[in-house]
Amino acid sequence: MEMSKQSRSEGSEVQTTLVDSALVKFKVDYEEITTHLREVVHSYIFSAGGHMWRITCRSFTVNGPAKCGLCTIVEHLSKSRCSKAIVEAFLMDKEGNPSTSGKQTDLVENYIIDGQITIICSIMVLSDSSIPVPPSDMGKHLGHLLDNTVGTYVSFNIGGKTFHAHRAVLTARSPVFRAELLGSMAEATMPAITLQDPCDPHSLDRLKLTCAQKLCDGLSVDTVAVTLACAQMYNCPELKNKCMDFFAKEENFKKAVLTKSFFQLGLQFPSVIDEIWERDGL
């Protein structure tokens, strides 16, 4: 991939800084691309550092038509301006470990999973500048305002705990909070508000997914049932699917069904238990 750098006047101090990065997983059907020689397979187009990129994988012959190899190319698709980037690509083996190269005889044995090869590509977009700009510290300043309760703020009682927040930030992030805190509703003049279910009623979708990610990271045979109950109760299909996938593994299922939380899940959401039986073919 050709990259260029703008010329600088003599005497200016140039610093290279990281602008943005991306990590992309690209799966290729091995039999399809090696059977039809010179066939090209493209990844989806993705963005990094304000530029558009694409991974291209093509097959080619090695020592005659009986053998073939794979070539991976990272294309810079943006036409507006040049870019400087560090690009690295590697194969993912069956154990989930990276490898920068692999012999053809090793591909089928070590790298093909369900007929596919997984290519991981990382791109770090750089910028040369004689006047480096520090990262934004707006979040730090907003945090100071919150800690010092400077300006108009409101407190929330959630599960017996008190959380402080700024009305302006809340109204910017949630149309429901905007109506409650700036409109004619009773909450507009209340210094403290009690919330039962903060995410769904207040359209805080990103906060909801952040919580779901935390719960997903802690999945185990002891927590999967209660986590699935939360996903069902708060209508989070992303978290529910992760829990169902966890149950789909036989070794996990055999241990999880013996927990007290699984029994409680059946009492609270019997339809979810039916989904587990149906999905796992039990």
Automatic annotation (TrEMBL):
Question: Which PROSITE patterns does the record match to this protein?
Answer: BTB
The record's InterPro entries line, in alphabetical order, gives: BACK_BPM_SPOP, BPM1-6, BTB/POZ_dom, SKP1/BTB/POZ_sf
Metabolic or biological pathway = Protein modification; protein ubiquitination
Q: What is this protein called?
A: BTB domain-containing protein
Domain BTB: residue ranges = 152-207
> Biological process GO annotation list?
protein ubiquitination
**Species of provenance:** Eragrostis curvula (weeping love grass)
Q: Which family does it belong to?
A: Belongs to the Tdpoz family.
